Amino acid sequence: MPPTALAAPAARRAPARPSAAREGVLFGLLPLALLAAATVAGLALGARPVPPAVVLDTLGALLTGRGVPEGIDAAAVAARVPRTVTATLVGAALAVAGAALQGATRNPLGDPGLLGLSAGASLATAAGIAVGLGGSTAAIAGLAALGTLAAAVAVYAVAAAAARAGGAPGAPSPVALVLAGAAVTAGATAATTALLVLSPTVQDRFRFWAIGTVARADLGDAVLLAPVVGVGILLAAAAAPGLDALALGDDLAHGLGRRPGRTRAALLAAVVLLTGAAVALAGPVGFVGLLAPHALRRLRPATARALVLGCALWGAVLVVLADVLGRIVLAPAEIHLGVTTVVLGVPVLLALLRRPGVGA
Amino acid sequence: MTTTTPAPTPGADPAGLRLRGVELGYGPASAPPVVGPMDLDLPAGRVTAVIGANACGKSTLLRGLTRQLPLRAGSIDVLDRDAAALSARAYARTVALLPQHPVAPEGMTVAQLVERGRNPHRGLLGGRAPGDDDAVASALERADLLGLADRDVSTLSGGQRQRAWLALVLAQATPVVLLDEPTSYLDLNHQVELLDLVRGLPDPTGRAPRATVVAVLHELSLAARVADHMVALAGGRVAAAGTPAEVLVPEVLATVFGLDADVVPDPLLGHPVVLPRGAGDRGAREGAA
User: Fold this and answer.
1) Given this model, what pLDDT does residue A89 score?
2) Hey, is the C-beta of A169 within 8 angstroms of any chain B C-beta?
3) Predicted structure pTM score
4) What is the DSSP string of A154-196?
5) CB pairs under 8 A between A and B
């Protein structure tokens, strides 16, 4: 029995809501400030470092429509704008997609890369280009979204069939889903490589190969797909109260007046939009969807809405910084974004696999 | 004693839950129903214990009462309102469920878990409602969890964790509470403690002094201790309904559980206590005599 001496009126109010202000800082203001700092770093650092004052000057000129000032430094900053904007969008999209996937499947290993969704999106994109469908960024994003959806259905069907064959029907285990995701990733990557070898058109137009990058990002693409990312994040945030209930099991979610089926459908739609947009912009970038939500859960957000919005901001910070890191470690050579995030993400995956209930 | 369609006991309390011609089942409509057709009245402001052998339809009945499983036929009135006329969230503000196997998410404090019970009281986007803090605080206090409010749920003992789930249901602040085997896996002292807590649940709407509680329970003597009203199910039908003293009689126990048993009154509290007899027990006793 706990001591009942704590039942004083002052202590009574305290435990229910200690964190409203703390939550606003940790999941809002702090990552926003860091994102601003990371953006300046992203524009300043690279093969030719530029002083922050020039960065701010150039940024001011660009934002007020005065065009790029003269000089090599200003030109370098202007050239880094598309990749920084793209990295922001990709990071926000993938982190929120990861949080949505983990919540919808109650599976700590939910990540668009790990579950084969990014590879499926890449294959659909390459295949679409091969048959002449990849004429515009919108078409590529649509193909990527379709590939995400197809991969999600395939992975879930394979994992559920494995669970049935193993005598445990019901929701597939985290490991079954990840194994099915690995199989889909291997198959889709092989098929993508074959298309690259066989089709000169694909070779020419498919920018991402097997590893994601923002090195050749285009600002027009980013502007076109930003609303898609925005809608995906809003959809996930709108489904967040259902996600809070879903985390307690389907039975209790029903008891709380939520419809688990509808919540999952909304979350899957968000995942398809976000992953499709992210792959269309940067190709397969792994582990962001794993890293950001798990790190933020350690800060104990009171609601899934705080987690989703926090993921959007922290994911953007993470990917912008990962891109900067890839540019300065071996400058003037570059490490692709997809490699940097894997290097950052693998230790997290290993730590997760050691937790009880995941490997079982 | 074994009536399939019991009329409400004369002079009984008004019905909290009124089932008429209810049929529940899984799969195609041509498959035989798991529960029903069933007429059943569960008194308002009282604790009803639902007992029965495994696979008799207890959990299916509870799923029907939460509307998780749609009715194949019939109707359910909750506190004199047709359940079908209420939205999912309005229904969740009237009827709360503590399922048998709720999932405890990782990295969550007791206070955060209990606050999830406020979910149906919030707006569509999940903004906090004015009564949230008070409801959570009073739920924590009633379940004696104030000292554990900031503890991680995964560090709680079995008894504490079950009290935390009950506090979540309390924070939902509904006049009707459904409990699916709330005492499984608990030590006997924690079972008694939890069931006493269940018996004292207030009706948050103030309509009645106590909430309408329906609990599926396995341990018959404990069920008799906590319950005002008892329903015995067999094969998806009502085998007996009434006070624990009316339901827990050797004939009903033989029909429902296939159990040979004697029933004696508790010497202190007076509720019936079931004494099971195995195949050899009576013979051994007669042989000795």
Assistant:
1) 96
2) no
3) 0.84
4) HHHHHHHHHHHHTT--SSPPHHHHHHHHHHHHHHHHHHHHHHH
5) 131
